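Supplementary notes for students who missed Thursday's class. We covered one full example, reproduced here. Read the sequence, then the structure, then the short commentary at the end.
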Amino acid sequence: MNTFAGVEWSDGTLPASSFNPSDLDADEWVRTARDLGARYVVLTAKHHDGFCLWPTATTDYSVASSPWRDGKGDLVAEVADAARRHGVKLGLYLSPWDRHAPEYDDPARYDEFYLRQLRELCTNYGELCELWFDGAGSAGREYDWESIGALIDELQPGAMVFNMGPATIRWVGNEDGLAADPVHYVTTSTDLNNYDEDVLETAEARYLPPECDVSLRRGWFWQEGEEPKSLAHLLAIHDRSIGLGANLLLNIPPDPRGRIDPEDAARVAEFAAALEARFGSPTEGTVRQEGNSVRIDLGGEQTFDHIELVERLEDGQRVSAHRVLHEDGTVLASGGTIGVRRIHRLEQPVRAAELRVELEGDSPVLEAARVHDATGAPVPDADIAYRATTERPDAA
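Structure (token representation):
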């Protein structure tokens, strides 16, 4: 709905007839994600305005009341079908905050209403890999997370749950797509949203790896006059999220036609090509570990300018700090955690047949190591060009 009104947050009063993409192509959306290398896509099935992109039985504020597909469309189904065709997993975003539903003012009634919506999404569209619960607008509001968790356990037990209630992953704490070293997977608290200081405290330490969400553009929805982030900016985001052991969730907003803006599509293709140039031809090392010291045999002399490390995580995240040394003893890189992936970009290419990695932590284990020669490939910005606003989109 926001796409057609030129806003980031609409208030639930826009007529359903506002939703009318002229040339919507969900297959194009999923192909764009697949070609970038995404493992899954997350569709915003209901944003804060309460408009539902599927023909829900809970409200008439949905695609069933819009002129799109003559009121017979189901956008969630179209994206789910496209995801299956292209071998990409599906996640769904269902905003807990609802600015349209009259039930919202009655917490008990709204909890029942919200559970019905969640049941529809968890039942009708196949296996889901993630359920995304946005904390915006929910400061001070407590939802029936026990019932929500029970429903997820019943219908989508394999889905990741983002940040609220029975969470299995957490928000990194900003909308810039940026983690910071160290990236700890175990935590006792998570930030709620980008617009206030609310923090969710957990009763005990929980394993909640972070997901870094950021938009390709400045805004989350397509707006006239905005442009995609530069390639160097996107590469910096990659290195500060995936490169630090976090996950990256990149928002690509369709335009009012329901298509990917050509400028956005070109930038995403450029991003994919740059990642392939940097990391597409790795040299795998053989790992030999004794205690906290690891030898990496590269199988002969190699020239490289990136080092990638992978920690064994079956017993939890154990590496608290590490150093990578050249075979002559020179320190090439150092940092805190490793996690599922840690990438070090070297200022200059080096040549070596063997590396040594020194680990710190409680019984840490390095599972894999590889090097990359990215000579001639695009490089990331040294500094992030700009940061997402922390002012609420509906602020006066």
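Commentary. The helical segments are 2-5, 26-36, 75-86, 107-124, 145-155, 231-240, 262-279. The mean pLDDT is 96. If anything here is unclear, bring it to office hours.
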